[in-house]
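Sorry to interrupt, but I need a hand with the structure work. Could you add the entry underneath, on a fresh line?
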Amino acid sequence: MTATYTWDVYSTLDGYGSYGGDGDWGGYWGKQGPEFLDYRFALYGEKQRMVFGANTYRESAQLLDPGTEPEVSDPVNTRLRNLPMTVVSTTLEGPLTWPNATLVSGDAVDVVARLKEESDVPLRSHGSLSMNRALMAAGLVDHVQVTIFPVITGQTGTAPIFQGAADFDLELLQSRTLDGRIQELIYRPTLHG
């Protein structure tokens, strides 16, 4: 039996995964509430292995490592930082600063295919846009979990989530509303055509 792989991504309504230097949005675009934070805290408490690409790991470590400026320490991020993690990179050098992070060099498609066969817990990746678009094209992503924050960042949005992705049909598996304004949609992707 192979482990399931979930690509977990935060998005604006217009499909951006982050905002540029001109934006003054703050984390979660300033729209998080107690229900969202409790839900994410519980989600990261489940047995799982995170899979990050190099860029997402670098950005996350810069924000979440103790003593970094600006340090973002909250229970959700602390729990995320301490999960077992595989970081796939051909550019990073170890040792990594996160306590349970393992650096694996190689092509993400090969690494994740092997992890899916070997892991006894589900795999989850947060962000890591280009890596996960390649994994979707290779048929390795079982679920796409998109959390849509109620903002449009037409002027400051960066990192279009699905730009350059292949075409996919999506089967909606689950949806929920958090704090009356944040939408979470979980899909099963199938390559179109």
